[in-house]
Amino acid sequence: MLVPDRFDYAAVRSDGFDLAFVDESGLPLPWERDEWVHGGWSVLWVKIDVASSPNVTAFTMYYGDPLSGDGSSSNDAWREEVAGVWHLRGLEDSSRTNAHCMEAASSSTTPTPGQVGSARQFSFQALRCGSPVGLDGIFNAGGTAMAWIRPNSFGEAGTGRILVKSTALTGWDFYVADGLGSGADERISFAYGQANGYSRWDTSASSITLGEWQHVAVVFNAGSMAAAPQLYINGELVPSFPGITGSGSWLGDEEDDIFIGDNDALQRAFDGAIDEVRMVRAALDADWLAAEHRSMTDTLLSWGPVEDRP
Questions:
Q1: Do residues 35 and 45 touch, judged by C-beta distance below 8 A?
Q2: What tens digit of pLDDT does each residue of 58-83 get?
Q3: Which of 86, 97, 109, 280 is most buried by a 10 A CB count?
Q4: d(CA 107, CA 90)
């Protein structure tokens, strides 16, 4: 994030088109301009391929060339396994999947200040993002879904949906929950359909706080049903427990649309704000999810002094 107390906006073009990023070798880095507010808070995402370049510990931002063109590219800024990136300033998907959303309820979500730039307020509304091939089966061989949430309540029927790709008992649901009938109060839950019923895993009671921003994530591998889903809150793996246990094979989600803020029947609405929703076709580890949290709480990077361009 660029903020006035550590970045001189007077030195950069008003549209930000002169920004550029390079790694320690001087090679250009892909990046996305999520939100640009000249003189205010701006949100930029820079792709650093740590998997193939583990020694990369620094990168440089250049600016000040009045003749440079806009180097921002949302699709190029995200790794190939990232299947969906919804910043929720608008309804667009920044990943290569291009699963742009549309309003699904009779009334529309509204912009609201988020954890990272702008978010969307869900007061019993929903977004439908379709079912392109790139979003199908992210959990088939190990995947991750995550979002920032600020719930006002636990939503419709006490189970407000954050992110859903399901119909009836197929696919999966990721949601906040209160009063599930087994003492499951103020938690996050992840449920998935199986050949015989469905399974649901819950975090401990009182693990979710109303009115505050929290980062929540689920890591699940449907190809290894014996392994329980892993649930994370604010970048930390938290204990989880089976609330309902089904049996049989994973039914998949290939026929199901993605919904943000409700289920496909529009009967389990989320009540509050949602920001930075992501789906990843990889089972991210604890270090990666801790870094995700730090990157969106402005604690991942340290900033060096301004230098003259060589």
A1: no
A2: 889 999 888 888 889 988 999 999 99
A3: 86
A4: 16
